[in-house]
Amino acid sequence: MGNITNEAFILGCSAIGAGIAMIAGVGPGVGQGYAAGQGAAAVGRNPGAKSDITSTMLLGQAVAETTGLYSLVIALILIFANPLLGKL
Amino acid sequence: MGTAFGILAAKEPDFQIHGLLKFHLFGQELWLTTTHVSIVIVCAVLMIFAVVVKKKLKDEPGKPGALQNVAEMGIEALDKMVYGSMGKRGIPFRNYIGALFCFILASNLSGLLGVRPPTADYGVTFPLGVITFVLIQFNNIKYNKAEAFTGLFKPLPFLFPINLIGEIAVPFSLSLRLFGNILSGTVIMGLIYGLLSNIAIGWPGFLHIYFDIFSGCIQTYVFCMLTMVFIKDKMPD
């Protein structure tokens, strides 16, 4: 353990942090799946309104995706533009 | 990468923004990057399309050409979209929404042609979000007058900080959504073409359909739709 440099330590921890950040992807997955299920049920009940339902569903899903994208941006920053390395 | 991917990879993954030309302005070090080049390409394509359509446009009675039909279909769809979500007061906004739609759509689709999409740079999407934010707040003040400021203290005065954050977060959430979606597609395609370059023949086309066409169109629609919804929120019924 004695011969790990500070830089390598920060890089390794950042990689772990990026992986943990992407756990947030669970939330949008569940949310989008639920929205798609409800959309399918709505189309089943009222096939005439298919296009309206689809566009509303896609809009809602894209908004629900935001939290997942925040975690993705954080993970990418940790890997490619690590701000912590500059603090050494 | 070294030898770890020796069989599969012929080159390093390349999805970063590269600086092409360095110059100094007002004591700041500035760079012309790949994003600028791709923006110029996208704008040139849009302008050429506009000029060609304008040339082919005929007002006289007679048979309109195919290009005119396509352009009119697009404009009608746009008008319908704006009118459907904003009502009568939204008609003046179709210029802005139309420009936004064309630019973001062309930017997102430019990934198909091997250009790095301009919208995969936060420096492009954040200004778009700021323009929308200014438009929202301008209409807020125009339609609600003093209510625009006192409205922040409703329903209870101590909720003011939360309301303020809710207003300020709009450009960030709008721009980060577009940026994150397009960037994730760009990064994954870059990794595939970099790390799997020896076997990346043909099949990445299916991924392009998802990441560039599907995701790009959806995000364009969502950005425009949310812009209209936010502006409409500030208008009286």
Radius of gyration of chain B: 22 Å
Query: What fraction of the residues of chain A are assigned to beta strands by DSSP?
Result: under 5%
Question: How is the CATH topology of chain A named?
Answer: F1FO ATP Synthase
Structural class of chain B: mainly alpha
Q: In terms of per-residue confidence, which ranges of chain A show pLDDT below 50 for 5 or more consecutive residues?
A: none
Topology as H/E string of chain A?
Answer: HHHH
Number of domains of chain A: 1
Number of domains of chain B: 1
Rg on CA atoms of chain A, Å: 20 Å
Walk me through this protein's architecture.
The complex is a heterodimer of chains A (88) and B (237). By secondary structure, chain A is mainly α. Chain A has one domain: F1F0 ATP synthase subunit C (F1FO ATP Synthase, Up-down Bundle). Chain A is 75% helix and 0% strand. Chain A is built from 4 helices and no strands. The model of chain A has no long low-confidence stretch (mean pLDDT 89). Chain B has 237 residues and is mainly alpha-helical. Chain B has one domain (23-233). Chain B contains 7 helices and 2 strands; from the N terminus they run ββααααααα. Chain B has helices at 34-56, 66-86, 94-109, 122-144, 147-150, 160-195, 204-233, and strands at 19-25, 28-33. A two-stranded antiparallel sheet of chain B has the order 1-2. The longest helix of chain B is centred in the C-terminal third of the chain and has 36 residues, at 160-195. The mean pLDDT of chain B is 85. Chain A binds chain B through residues 55, 58-59, 62-63, 65-66, 69-70, 72-73, 76, 80, and chain B through 16, 173, 176-177, 179-181, 183-184, 187, 218-219, 221-222, 225-226.
